[in-house]
Amino acid sequence: MSVPQSSDHPLSPEELAEVVARDIPAGAYVNLGIGQPTLVSNYLGPEDDVTLHTENGMLGMGGEAHGDEVDPDLINAGKIPVVETEGCSYFHHADSFAMMRGGHLDCCVLGAFQVDRHGNLANWHTGKPDAIPAVGGAMDLATGAKQTFVMMTLKSKNGQSKLVERCTMPLTGVGCVSRVYTDLGVFVVEGGRIVVRETFGVGYDELVEQLDVTLTPGR
Amino acid sequence: MLTIAETAAAAVAPVHDGACVMIGGFGVAGQPVELIDALIDNGATDLTVVSNNAGNGDVGLATLIQLGRVRKIICSFPRQSDSWHFDEKYRAGQIELEVVPQGNLAERIRAAGAGIGAFFTPTGYGTPLAEGKEVRKLDGRHQVLEYSIHADFSLTKALRADRVGNLVYRKTARNFGPVMAAAATHSIVQVDEVVERGALDPEAVVTPGIYVDTVVRVDHPRQQDSREEGAA
C-alpha cells in the first residue's frame, strides 16, 4: 500500500485546521480545545451545520467578538470574548459537562504533548516536579466525546516525536484518541496501531525513518 | 426564608474562620467581585475555597490568597498567566491544592446539592488524578469513585433576583452559580437587580428560590477584562 503525500510542504496551523474541518461530519456537535484547535472554526461554514460547544456553558458559540460586540459575560473556554449564533443556548457548568461526559458531543479536537499507539493522551501536565498542575476540562473532553481528535505539531521543540509507543507524561485519558492531525501527516489510531493516512512535505518512508515509533501504511 | 441584605458586608457577615466557601465564576465571568471584596474585609481565615480558578491579578480571590486566608483550594485550573499570588503560596507550601477535572468539580458540586454522596465516572481513569481512588467496571468502562463537595457558604453572581430568591443569569456568567447555590448550606448571591415577586417569568427562572438564602443588590458591579492567555 502506498501512503499519499498530499502536500509538498509541511502544513501551517491554518492549513491543518482546514484538513481537520473537512473531516468533521455535517451536523456534528463539536468542542474545540484551546490553542491550535480553535483555528478549525475558521474553516467551518454555515453549510457544515456544525454546532460548537464551549464548556463554560454554551452551545452555538460564534466567532471571536470585536469592538462593540465584546461582552465580559460572553466568553469561551479560553476566556476570549465571543458572539452568539442564531439558535444558541446557555446552561450551567454541570449541564455543560453532562453533555460532554454523557457522550452527546460527536467530536472534540484537543492539543497534545504526547499520543501513543494505544490512543492514550497526555496533554495536561509535563510531569516536571516544579510544574503547577492544572487540568481544566481536558480529562472530561478526552473521555466523554464520541471521538477525540488531536491536532498538534508532530515533533516537540527539541525535535522529539510526540507520537510515541507509550506515553511517558501523566495521562489525560486512556485509549481515547482516534485520529492525530499534524503538520507532517494525518494518523489514525486503531487496534494498537498508528496508521498513516497521508503525509505533508515528507514521504512515508522518510517519515518512518524520522520517527521512533512503529507506523503502519494506510489506505 | 430569604434575606435581602443591605450591603455585601452584611451578606457575608456569617462566614466564619475555617469555613468551606464556594466561589462562582469562570475566569471573571460570573465572578462575585463585590462579595469577595466583602469577604476580604470580613477577616474570616483558614478557609477552604472551591472555585474553578485560583484568582487573577491582584484582586478578589487572588487577594484573599495573597493575604494567607485560604488554607486549601479545590479547583480545576489554578495556573494562569496572572495567578502569581496562588503560584507563590503554592511554591512556598503555604496553600493546599486539590486539582479536580472541571467536569468532576461541577458534578461533585451538583451531587452535593442533590443529596448524592458519591458517584462513579470514567473521567480521570488511568490518570494521576484517580490514584488511590476506588475503580469499578460499569457498562464496560472503568469508572472512578468521586465524592460530592458540600460547602458552608457559596458566593455567586446572578443578573436578577425576585423577592423570593428566584434567579436568572446572564449568558456564560451562569457557569457554576446554580450548582454552587444548591450545594452550600448558606448561599449568598449578588445580583444587579432585585425585582418584585411575580416579575420574573416562571418558565425562565434558572435557580428557584429554595436554593437561595441571601441576596444582595450591587448597583454597578465591577468586572475585569476577561482576556487572558491560555487559561481554562
Radius of gyration of chain A: 17 Å
Q: Please give the alpha-carbon distance between the first and last residues of chain B.
A: 36 Å
Please report the number of helical segments of chain B.
6
CATH superfamily of chain A: Glutaconate Coenzyme A-transferase
Number of helices of chain A: 4
Q: What is the fold-level CATH name, i.e. the topology of chain B? A: Glutaconate Coenzyme A-transferase
Largest sheet of chain A: 11 strands, mixed
Subunit arrangement of the protein: heterodimer
CATH architecture of chain B: 3-Layer(aba) Sandwich
Protein architecture, described:
The complex is a heterodimer of chains A (219) and B (232). Chain A has a single domain (5-217), classed as Glutaconate Coenzyme A-transferase. Chain A has four helices and 14 strands. Chain A has helices at residues 13-23, 93-101, 138-144, 204-210; strands spanning 5-7, 29-32, 51-54, 58-64, 82-90, 107-110, 114-116, 121-122, 147-152, 163-164, 177-182, 185-190, 193-200, 216-217. In chain A, helix 2 runs parallel beside helix 3. Chain A is globular. The mean pLDDT of chain A is 96. In chain B, a hairpin with a 2-residue loop joins strand 7 and strand 8 (141-147). The model of chain B is unreliable at 226-232 (pLDDT under 50). Chains A and B meet through helix 2 and helix 3 of A and helix 4, helix 5 and helix 6 of B.
